[in-house]
Amino acid sequence: MKCLIVYCSSHGTTEKAVRFLSEGLEGKVFAVDLKRDKEKFDLANFDTVIIGGSIHAGNIQRKIKQFIKNNLDTLLEKDVGLFLCCMHDGESAIEQFNNAFPQELRKNSAAMGLFGGEFLLSEMNFLEKQIVKKVSGATIDQSNLDYEAIKEFASKLNHIKSVV
């Protein structure tokens, strides 16, 4: 089985989650950061497609939304996993997840995950720092990346692949 992980990482948190996720997935895994990587790929070459990003100013990255919009029909024919890195939890995190991914894709997904997040003020520009400080009160780097949630997500996808 071949798996594609398509993601965007602004400050490295989503990339960190993708690296950990990749280690937990069975088979060949190919990861592409839509923000940085210029590699071309054909969705037809993959059995499973995982899509993930993070929340900035209340929204997932534009490149993730565009990727989903451009490939929705093909994605609906694949085993799909969706994940989100965000600092919120509970109902607020679920609301952000639902706003990040279209309902049609969520309903068709084999796995969905909320992986927690990080405020890496040391990686942010001045404006980003000011926004994070105002919204969250954070003044130093904070991490609540949920490695257990990432393991569970990988396990769900591995189980689906082994059933087929």
Written description of the protein model:
With about 160 residues, the protein is α/β, with parallel strands linked by helices. The chain has one domain: Flavodoxin domain (Rossmann fold, 3-Layer(aba) Sandwich), CATH 3.40.50. The chain contains 6 helices and 8 strands, in the order βαβββαβααββαβα. The strands form 2 sheets. Strands 1, 2, 3, 4, 5 and 6 form a 6-stranded mixed β-sheet that branches. The termini are close together. The model has no long low-confidence stretch (mean pLDDT about 85).
Short synopsis of the structure:
This protein is of the alpha/beta class.
CATH topology: Rossmann fold
Number of domains: 1
* CATH homologous superfamily (4th level) name: Flavodoxin domain
| Low-confidence regions | none
Write down the Rg.
15 Å
> Which second-level CATH architecture applies?
3-Layer(aba) Sandwich
CA distance, first residue to last residue: 10 Å
Number of helices: 6
What layout of secondary structure does this protein have?
Elements: E1 2-7, H1 13-24, E2 28-33, E3 48-56, E4 59-60, H2 62-75, E5 79-85, H3 90-100, H4 103-107, E6 111-114, E7 118-119, H5 126-136, E8 142-143, H6 147-163
Parallel strand pairs: 1-2, 1-3, 3-5, 5-6
Antiparallel strand pairs: 3-4, 7-8
